[in-house]
Amino acid sequence: MNNLVTAVTSKGKSFIIDGRKLKSLNQWFNKCTARLQCIKDK
User: Using CA atoms in the order 21, 23, 28, 30, what is the torsion angle rounded to 10 degrees?
Assistant: First the structure.
């Protein structure tokens, strides 16, 4: 998922929204959640 959105406006202009930053943020969040879950389970 490198491109979050690829779209075309009603005027025919196309644009792409990069999804790499969102993907990176999600991976960081999952890592922190897993670490906290591990601490909680002990």
Answer: 160
* pLDDT one-digit tens code per residue, 12-37: 999 998 999 889 999 999 999 999 99
Please check the confidence at residue 1 and state whether its pLDDT lies above 70: no
Do 3 and 17 meet the contact criterion of CB atoms below 8 Å apart? yes
Q: What would the 3-class secondary structure string for 28-41 be? A: HHHHHHHHHHHHHH
Length of the chain: 42
Contact 1, 19 (CB under 8 A): yes
